[in-house]
Amino acid sequence: MRLANRDARPVPWLPTGRTADAALAGGAFAVLAAMTLVSIHTGPPSRMPLYSWALLAVACGALYLRRSRPVAVAAVTLAACAVYYPVTEPDGPAVLTFVIALYTAAAEGHLIAAAVLAGIAVAGTVAADRRDDVNHLADAAGFLLIGWFVAVVAIGGVVRNRRAYLREAQERARVAERGREAEARRRAIEERLRIARELHDVLGHNISLINVQATAALHGLRREPQRAEDALTAIKQASKDVLREMRATLGVLRQVDEAAPVAPAPGLARLDELARGLAAAGLEIRTEAEGEPRPLPAETDLAAFRIVQEALTNVTRHSGAASAVVRVRYEADGVVVSVEDDGRPGSGTPSADGSGIRGMRERAEALGGGLVAGPGPDGGFTVRARLPL
């Protein structure tokens, strides 16, 4: 693909477009005029009439329009040559203008028209030679012109096909580049969302615990010193936990040659540890399991834990609940986790469009599952997610 792009680039110091065509027309006239003058001065004494110079100028000047009107220019140069050669002595190489126009017509995709004009030129030349009773020369000239014009048309067709190939290759390269850029943007967005969810879950849960415990410590600092001490101990542990998980989460931003974090990713096996941390904040947690517990894929295990963690964090933030139930149900093709609290109906439960619920739903949907969150039938708030295996 790179070779195609490099071949398609013009040479910087060469003219292009109309400038190149004007230079070609002027250069062709200068070269043909010089060759004609040399032929006049070195051959038998002769003088080329003015109308022959005019025909030569018309044939060369027509080359200026060879790209915009390739077939018409080829026809004009052929007609000019047809008139020029019978009346001009010495005749000179005016046929080169027709050769250039014929090549351009073929290179621009007019192969049939180029072949027809080449056939007319060959037939006319052979007929003129036979009329002058120079049969041996007519045969030689005919074969020479046929080979010459066939080669010119063939070269033009090859150039046309190569240009089409280069354009197609460049278009494929542009499409592929756009696809790579779109894929890179998509992956970057997904990675940012994943990191945002991890940071939200890690920071949100532990900072909420720290906030609750700090409030309890302030209220009980003088009247209940033991309660304040317990709260400060819980703050210390929560701070330690958040630092540990922050190091593990930010490990995804490390360079390839840096050491990766060695702490295991959290999973459902840490539910009891999560419950103990929240119990220190005054929220009683009961965990229940249904079905046969079994190891889960790492991404499913992490998503289930984070959903439960975020749901319990929402309980401490928004609900007046004193207790919550965490249920884990193992199914043949998936796992279902749910969190139900006993808060009062409508007592500050989070709206369904909150960032926490949105993050939980994104986690579930990223694995092909789903999540439902809303008020429970008997009060409180319920979050239920199903993650397929």
UniProtKB/TrEMBL annotation:
Keywords associated with the record:
ATP-binding, Coiled coil, Kinase, Membrane, Nucleotide-binding, Phosphoprotein, Transferase, Transmembrane, Transmembrane helix, Two-component regulatory system
Domain (DUF7134) ranges: 21-163
Give me the reactions it catalyses: ATP + protein L-histidine = ADP + protein N-phospho-L-histidine
Q: Where is the Signal transduction histidine kinase subgroup 3 dimerisation and phosphoacceptor domain?
A: 191-257
Q: Name one Pfam family in it.
A: HisKA_3
Gene Ontology cellular component? Answer: membrane
Q: Which residues form a coiled coil?
A: 166-199
- Record Gene3D superfamilies: 1.20.5.1930, Histidine kinase-like ATPase, C-terminal domain
Which molecular function term from Gene Ontology is one that the record holds?
phosphorelay sensor kinase activity
Q: Give the source's domain of life in one word.
A: Bacteria
The transmembrane residues are: 21-42, 48-65, 72-88, 100-128, 140-159
Recorded hits in SUPFAM superfamilies, A to Z, give: ATPase domain of HSP90 chaperone/DNA topoisomerase II/histidine kinase (SSF55874)
Question: Ranges for the Histidine kinase/HSP90-like ATPase domain?
Answer: 304-389
Q: What is its EC number?
A: 2.7.13.3
CDD domains recorded for this chain? HATPase_UhpB-NarQ-NarX-like
Region annotation (Disordered) maps to: 339-358
Give yes or no: UniProt keyword Kinase: yes
> Which protein are we looking at?
histidine kinase
Instruction: Identify the species of origin.
Output: Actinomadura citrea
Q: What is the lineage of its organism?
A: Bacteria, Bacillati, Actinomycetota, Actinomycetes, Streptosporangiales
